[in-house]
Amino acid sequence: MKIKIFFLALLMFLFNYKLLSAETLTLSETLKKALKENHYIKAKNYEFLSKEKDLYISKYSLYPKIYLEEKFTTGNYNSYGVFTKLNQETLTMTNFFNPGTVSNFHTSINLEMPLYVRELFVNREMKKSFFLSSKNDLGNFREEIAFQAFKAYLGLLKAKAYLDMVKKSLEEAEEVYRVAKVRVKNGLAVSSDELRAFVYLKERQSALIKAENDLKIAKKALGVILSEEKDYDVLEETLKEDNLPILDDLIKEAMKNRKDLMSNKYNIEALKHLVEIEKSKYYPKVYLALSYLNDGRSFPMQGDGSGYVAGINLRWDIFDKTRNDGKDKALSEAHRLKEIVNQMEKEIIFRVKESYYRVEETKKRFELAQEALKEAEETYRLIKLRYQNDLAKILELIDAETALNIARNSIIISQYDYFEAIGKCLYEAGIFTKNIIKE
Predict the structure, then answer these.
(1) Does residue 258 contact residue 434 with C-beta atoms inside 8 Å?
(2) Angle of helix 118-185 versus helix 394-428 axis, rounded to 10
(3) Which listed residue, 76, 92, 115, 152, has the most CB atoms within 10 A of its CB?
(4) Range among 3-17, 50-64, 171-185, 198-212 rated most confident
(5) Which CATH number fits domain 65-116+282-319: 2.20.200, 2.60.40, 1.10.1450, 2.40.128?
(6) Cβ(114)–Cβ(62) under 8 Å?
(7) Cα 286 to the chain's mean position, in Å?
(8) What integer best gives the mean pLDDT of the chain?
């Protein structure tokens, strides 16, 4: 019985531990989850599907249209009565001059199919360009969400590293306070040393409270970008400059892969097609028309008289002043968008260069921070020895430890600034998800 209770308690513990423990994600898993679960991404997918439906609709407009029409009429007008009875095949010489009141159920099944309507073909190409623009717009939005998830991932790593640094500095502050108390107790230091150490200890405890809260917020921030309410933990993955092509290749990649740029270029193509649609309205339109007709005296499809009519219809709109206005409007919009694209290309090149130079800058800052940390650690070690041998004041020791904490913090900041700069450079080149999660 005791064994059963033990195993039951163990299972409950493991189950609760699994529920309470945060799920741990790698960088690739974080980005994939964001691209799959983020609600903004899902909303953008629905917008893209609507554009896809527009493309299908433009293709289907070339298909034949079939529709049924039913019409009931009654009256005693002579010409109406004669021709209605003629269609019903009930007209005779006795009722030709006096048909009387006639009722009729007229049924028609009609087919209409465009044989040559130029604007329908151009419209299909325009919808295709808008579809490709929307597809690239979706791709650009996915890049944005992936990069936001990347920054949230780095923010969580930075918060964890900062918390570890604060905990270590708190341990050192506790040790300084302990040594100061012992020295004051043994008459080797004045009580002000103990008070200064105590104040510094409280400052480190305050920093710990903030660091713990920052970590909690960082986990929530990652959960928001993943559209999840639960907390997540992450595993650190190192980004290196090996992920980056050379600058010239990055610029070429940006011109080829920036989805926002491609989206606007397809919009320009679509507007050019819109201009062609306005021009196409001057062309004649040719349709095939076929109708099956049925007339009945008492109910629809009675079959008193039936037959078919087939033919080819031509419509040619010779003049409509509004067409010129529509063409000029579409042309102006195309020119406007072209100017925007030209400026975008220049800005993209600048952003790629800027982000590339930032990678070089943050790398050097990270290297300098590593050197500064070594010197700060050695300085703290030496002054701590001097203080223990009554050769240095406690203010010097606290200053040395403060400098050490600043150096440690600089390492954290410069390291994750370096990682973010690499990601930013890939993002500006439009190859972030492609390089990070091999999408």
Answers:
(1) no
(2) 170
(3) 152
(4) 198-212
(5) 2.20.200
(6) yes
(7) 44
(8) 87
Contact, 38 vs 227, CB < 8 A? Answer: yes
Sequence-separated (6 or more) residues with CB below 8 Å from residue 244: 250, 356, 359, 422, 425, 426
Please report the DSSP string for 379-394 in residue order: HHHHHHHHHHTTSS-H
Residue that has been written with the tokens 């629809």 in this structure: 300
In this prediction the pTM is 0.80
Higher pLDDT, 411 or 321: 411
Which runs of E-coded beta strand occur in 28-130?
65-75, 102-116
**pLDDT tens-digit series, residues 9-48:** 555 544 444 434 568 899 999 999 999 999 999 999 998 9
Burial class (CB in 10 A: 0-12, 13-18, 19+), 244: buried
Tens digits of residue pLDDT in 231-258: 888 988 877 777 788 999 999 999 998 9
Q: Which residues contact 12 (CB under 8 A, 6 or more apart)?
A: none
At residue 135, the pLDDT reads 93
Half-sphere CA count of 385, side-chain side, radius 13 A: 5
Can you give the pLDDT at residue 17? 43
Burial class (CB in 10 A: 0-12, 13-18, 19+), 370: middle
Q: What is the CATH number of domain 23-63+117-280+333-436?
A: 1.20.1600.10
Which of 165, 179, 174 lies closest to 385, judged by CA? 179
Given a contact cutoff of 8 angstroms between Cβ atoms, the answer to whether 362 and 379 are in contact is no
- Name the token pair of 420: 């973010």
Q: What is the pLDDT of residues 328-381, one digit of tens each?
A: 888 888 899 999 999 999 999 999 999 999 999 999 999 999 999 999 999 999
Domain ranges of the chain: 23-63+117-280+333-436, 65-116+282-319
Place of tokens 């407009």: 61
d(Cα 152, Cα 94) in Å, to the nearest integer?
Answer: 93
Cα separation of 307 and 213, whole Å? 84
DSSP notation for 397-437:
HHHHHHHHHHHHHHHHHHHHHHHHHHHHHHHHTT-HHHHHS
